Amino acid sequence: MPKPIKDERSPYWQYDFQRNKRRFYGSTGTTSKRKAQEFINRLLDEIASGKNALPEITMDQACDAYWVDKGQHERSSKTTEYQLANLITGIGKNKLLSSIRISDFRAYIAKRRLDVSNASVNREWQLARRVWRHVGHSHSVSDIKWGELRLDEPPERVRELSADEEQRIFDALPDSLKPIVEFAILTGQRKSEVVGLRWDKINWQAGEARVEKKGGGEHKFPLSHAAVLLILEQPEVDDCPFVFTYVCERPSPARKDRPARKKGVRYPFSKQGWDRKWRKAREVAGIGDFRFHDLRHTTATRIMRATGNIKAASKMLGHTDVRTTSRYAHVQMDDLRAILLDTESRNNTGKRLTNEPETRINTEEME
After folding, report:
1. Contacts of 170 by beta carbon, 8 Å cutoff, 6+ apart
2. Residue 99, Cα to own-chain centre: how many angstroms?
3. Distance CA 89, CA 104 (A)
4. What's this model's pTM, rounded to 2 decimal places?
């Protein structure tokens, strides 16, 4: 017999059970456990009699189901939680999914785009589409043509670290940050993947490393000779599983997410704690409009320039879709100029412009 379930995020008792290979879940709408059990018993009787094949589901319940099953387990769970809250507030928490139309989303989008970018709005309705799909297998939901909701986004940002800028940034970086910046350039991995690199995820014989990738799961990539040497230069710290560490310059008290830190002791990097030093190094180097993530763009562009193989760049960066890589591998004007010159050389294009005057066509005689 299914029993009421207590969820700390809601004052109401919940239910979640399966009958005839179908899942029934949601809120009982009561804070009384006895009444919640009565609600479940009535629902079971209706299902058994065929009177209630499936209960309706509200926007709040649908988003809650997605959060419990998927959202809270995503690496970007905080962003997902924030976006779900926006959707619930904007569309209406008690509105039935079956009654929601594309006009409701258009009104939501019109209001949201006053506060955030088009890209952010697109991410929110795309999350709504995932919520619909998550519950759609067992609930009657409206047929929304999601593609009609897409807003235009600005052109993809193009930013690559030049050779001169690379030298200047390394001259300005403190010694503690140089290894993680160099490793990011050598491998094209994200900031969180670089600082999260673990000793037990390195396969020395195969010359490979594994990192926890965005969205969950692991990404395996090869290590160049330079990357291997860089890793070997890093000191191993007792009871610390991470490759990249730094020496604490000043003590700090304990926090909820970490114990107290002592001056002169090595600790692993946090994801954001060293951003101030990174920004200062950029300022000293005179490099504007450049993010740490642009190091990833730089790696992809260099792989493309050296090989012309977008699949190789995609594999290195851990993308599941080559189309994602195409946004990173930018072809600059100098690249295009070099390609044109090589094409002309191979095909003798432009030969007539370098011939002697007497061999050229006499346009006056043609007239």
Report:
1. 178, 181, 182
2. 32
3. 12
4. 0.58
